[in-house]
Amino acid sequence: MSKPKMSDEERKQLIERLAADLEDFVAERSIAARNKKATEPEDNRTIDEIVEELKSHPAFMTDIDWSKPLPPEIEGLMQLKYECENPTARAGSYREDGNEQFKLKKYKIAIDNYTEGIKSRCPDAELNAVLYANRAAAQFHLGNYRSSFNDCIFARKFQPDHFKAIVRGAHCCFKMGKFADAIRWCDAALMVDPEHSEILELRVKADKGQRAKERDERKQAALERKEQEEDKKLLDTIIGRGIKVASMKVPKQAKFDPLLLTALESHNPTGAKVHLDQQGTLHWPVIFFYPEYTETDFINDFNEQHCFYDHLVHMFSQEPPAWDVDHKYKADDLEIYFENNDEEKLYKVDPETSLLQALKHKKYLVYAGTPGFILCVKGSKFREEFLSRYKY
């Protein structure tokens, strides 16, 4: 059963509603475009830029001076049938050639033809709507969904009830994962044809996609809240221990600031970071410096309750490191220091001291989320020379 034909008044009212809806959509997208830059390479124009370009089109101008020369790029393409001085006829010729190339699935060539037709700047709004809608179709077949969508907006600017442009725009939104926009464009299409099966099916898919997207966003928000709570607990624990971290000199009463966590990002090549275990114990990545040989050791997980000596026994009781050619680095023969950069002074650490006790020292400051300590051999010549460089 065919649909009853719209009266002129009904069609006029429909066009007004569609035009108003499009204007609202463009306004909303303009605000969003200011907050988020487009990332797809094929067309980085904002909606504002598209509208500005549209305003300069002869179809929307009340005073057109066709005596003025056309842009150089168009003059260079005026050949054969395109040399016609009538911009409408020229645009129509480009449309016909574009359609032929589209049928042959030569979409890039079709796009070039439609583009030249658009550049003809003809005053025929309906022809311009067709050129933009056809170019949108070609762009869509190439997977350039953002460019295709922008052309759909242009087509509707010229002809608000252009059904193919509305349908194409809905599909573009869906392909780009913009499900809320897809639903809105589907609703616009259903205002023209309430029983259009393709659009009804697409709307169901878009609604399902939007629900899934909102569900994922809620999960992500919950995960971020959980991570923030864990981060706050970590910072509170560190500050509560009396440990000072570079760029994090804040009082215990200070409110939680997620930016402070950047001071805890480790430079450990393994990516290990300070963390709390289930018993509330801190585990730190720690670096040992051996200035005599310009070597380092990373300890990925140093329990704050463990003492330095236990780690030294584990590290130097077996095969000596390759750089220790004299085999003099042994747990019982090592001294441990930390450096206070502000004072350019070294402070000695008892090997039987726990990591927590060392970090709570009033002169200790943790840099880059990784406590660091200097190790030297007792009584060695290098130790004497090294210590002489500092206040000690």
Automatic annotation (TrEMBL):
Annotated source species: Lymnaea stagnalis (Great pond snail)
CDD domains named among the record's database cross-references: CTWD_Cns1 (cd21380)
Cns1/TTC4 wheel domain sequence ranges: 277-388
Cellular component aspect of the GO annotation: cytosol; nucleus
Keywords from the named record: Repeat, TPR repeat
UniProt similarity note: Belongs to the TTC4 family.
UniProt protein name: Cns1/TTC4 wheel domain-containing protein
Gene Ontology terms describing biological process: protein folding
